[in-house]
Amino acid sequence: MAGIESIANNANINNEFERVYPSQPIPTEQALWFPFQGQKLLVKTQDQGITLLQGDQELLANIKHEELLYIGRYKGQPCIASALDPEEPLPGDWKAFGLRELYNLMPGFEYNIATYASQLINWHKTSRYCPVCGSPMVSVEGGWGRSCVRGDYTGYPAVIPAIIVLIHDGKRMLMAHKAGWGKRYGLIAGFVEPGETLEECVHREVKEEAGIEIEDLQYMNSQPWPFPSQLMIGFMARYKSGVVQPQDNELDDVRWFSSDTLPELPPPSSLAYILISSWLKQYGNQQ
Ligand SMILES: [Zn+2]
């Protein structure tokens, strides 16, 4: 099991992205741009697919940016997030895509930076005023936090933890189905409650959604999931006891699958798919 864990975790670290925090000045050199118009990222579409916009400030001086954030460096190149006016006219070869559409169309690490950019832009948009007294909020030095000018509140961009777990009994794995998913099955997942450890959350969600007990819980991998600000935390666990049965109204089916009877799976590069692949590598030939 240690082998799988280390493979999963090493593949999951982006050493080439270095974060930068306020109040570093916006670089004027050639940069990677993450401009958002509403919730959509503007990219270039070319014959070979989708590429991030690149250019210096001069290139983009003719576009009106409502917000500019210097968020980091990728492979040494500055990354700049920006928010554009919804009415701003754009060059003909720029195209707007929702982040869900871009998932699987962009390299994973670039996609993760895009989701980071999107969350920071949204955070700035929604944290202009103090939720306690309504006074303006200003940036906290050295981080993305924002503080009320009267000093009664400081907020930070939210990261909402959610667990996802692959449960197996050595020969089969447990998959769940929600109304509206068509033929596709996924894994048991759910949000962490306040005051709960990740381990408690996994046990609770499994009990609530499938009605069973698990053991040998093991952390595998994680993935930011920006809809809107989740961090998916992936586990593997072994079935212990109980009868599998959907327990809440969210799921309409929960059942065991062996590797030769798999249903339609979640999309590649989703954390669910990565967990399923890890399990198949280890247990897929033990029918
Ligand atoms: Zn205040």
TrEMBL record:
Keyword flag Magnesium: yes
Enzyme nomenclature, EC number: 3.6.1.22
Catalysed reaction equations from the record: a 5'-end NAD(+)-phospho-ribonucleoside in mRNA + H2O = a 5'-end phospho-adenosine-phospho-ribonucleoside in mRNA + beta-nicotinamide D-ribonucleotide + 2 H(+)
Keywords: Hydrolase, Magnesium, Metal-binding, NAD
Cofactors, names only: Mg(2+); Zn(2+)
Signal peptide residues on this chain, from the entry's feature table: none
Protein's UniProt name: NAD(+) diphosphatase
Gene3D superfamilies, per the entry: 3.90.79.20, Nucleoside Triphosphate Pyrophosphohydrolase
Nudix hydrolase domain span: 157-282
InterPro entries named in the record: NAD-cap_RNA_hydrolase_NudC, NADH_PPase-like_N, NudC-like_C, Nudix_hydrolase, NUDIX_hydrolase-like_dom_sf, NUDIX_hydrolase_CS, NUDIX_hydrolase_dom, Znr_NADH_PPase
Record family assignment: Belongs to the Nudix hydrolase family. NudC subfamily.
